[in-house]
Structures are given as C-alpha cells and as structure tokens.
Recover the amino acids of this structure.
C-alpha cells in the first residue's frame, strides 16, 4: 500500500534571513493562491498585540476565487499566551482551506510552544545570526565605540539577559587582561558603583548600565599618564 503524504497546511519559518524568508513566502503564495486573488486571500498579522478573537475570525474566513487562503503571523515569539494555546489546538486539525505561516526569528529549544508546534508543522529553517554576548560588549568597550556598545547592551537586555549577568561577563572578560592593571581597577570600580546603583534601586538597571558603558568608553588610561592628570602628579611627587 502506497502512503500519500498529506499536504502541509502549517509552515514554521525559523531564522534571521528575511530575504530568503520572503522568497519562500512568495513560493507558497504562488503555490496556494490563484493569480490575482492575493488581495482577498492573504492576511499578514503581527503577533505583538494580536487578539485571540481577531485571530479566530481570520481563520474562519473562506477563500475568494481560490482553493486556499494564507495567513502569515510575523514575529511569533511575541504572541500572547492564550493565542499560543489556541494555535496549538488549531494545529491538531487545521482548516483544509487555510494555510498558516508562522514566522519566528530565533528558535529556543526550551520554548515549549515552538517545540510542540515544530512537531505538527512543516519546519523551514533559515540562517540565524550569532547571538551577541557580553564578550562582544567588552570588545567594543575596548575599542571605545560608545554607540556600538550601547546597541549591543540594548540587544542583550531585549534578549532577556539579566543586568547582573552582563556585569559578571564584563568582569570575567577584564580579569583575563593583566597588561593594564590600573585601567582594570578603574573599570572594576565603575562596575561596582553600577552594581550598587542597581541593587539599591538608585537607578533603573537599563539607565545605570547605559551610564556605566558611556563612562567606560570615555575613560582612557592615557589620562592617568598625562602630566596634567592628578594621578600622574601624585605619582611624580
């Protein structure tokens, strides 16, 4: 007996390569939508703020002059919990006239929603950018690149990195450097002040970290060696 593979009705697109994703979505449009009917049979939804009722309404819509219609959900990592629960229930028995495309930038194997959805959807993976870490931040601070350092800090916080782990990672990176002990001591002092500000609630973590990064990028060991520097004058006396 020959088994006939059932046509997929749910696609899970994973990765950061948006150009390749767009190409894949175009292929799916060409495959499922009758030419000239895209305006009637395509819904592009954004997960942030997507209400369950509205999502259910879009699923119930019937195709117009086409065998299928397509619903695309962008940035699905931001879906509300109730929408995720419903989507998993729906995925067990999807409507035969609706193709659902679930888009996500990063795949977290610890995310139960994604792991369960992967089991019932056709998964298409694309290239993913390497995740930034505190050692990338330390490297940019070393180059005194304030703007890039702040962008990396912002990305780390958006990715859910905790302030104490960011500070711990910077401390670990600096403690490997033994060539400039005076500058390292200065950095660690600034780090301690930042940590105290956060733990005592004197400043919000994001703001305290931003000020800390700006101070680090503006600090230069050459100031300590300058004849005008108070530290230099104390050593010379």
């Amino acid at each position: 007996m020959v088994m006939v593979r059932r046509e997929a009705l749910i696609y899970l697109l994973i990765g950061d390569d948006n150009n390749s994703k767009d190409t894949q979505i175009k292929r799916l449009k060409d495959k499922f939508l009758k030419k000239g009917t895209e305006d009637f049979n395509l819904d592009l939804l954004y997960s942030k703020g997507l209400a369950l009722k509205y999502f259910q309404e879009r699923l119930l819509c019937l195709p117009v002059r086409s065998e299928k219609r397509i619903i695309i959900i962008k940035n699905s990592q931001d879906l509300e919990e109730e929408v995720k629960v419903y989507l998993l229930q729906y995925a067990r028995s999807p409507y035969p006239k609706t193709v659902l495309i679930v888009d996500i930038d990063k795949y977290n194997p610890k995310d139960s929603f994604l792991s369960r959805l992967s089991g019932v959807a056709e998964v298409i993976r694309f290239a993913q950018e390497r995740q930034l870490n505190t050692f990338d931040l330390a490297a940019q601070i070393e180059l005194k690149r304030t703007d890039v350092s702040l962008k990396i800090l912002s990305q780390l916080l958006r990715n859910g990195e905790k302030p104490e782990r960011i500070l711990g990672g910077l401390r670990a990176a600096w403690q490997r450097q033994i060539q400039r002990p005076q500058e390292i001591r200065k950095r660690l002092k600034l780090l301690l002040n930042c940590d105290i500000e956060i733990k005592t609630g004197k400043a919000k973590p994001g703001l305290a970290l931003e000020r800390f990064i700006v101070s680090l990028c503006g600090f230069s060991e050459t100031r300590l060696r300058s004849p005008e520097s108070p530290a230099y004058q104390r050593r010379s006396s």
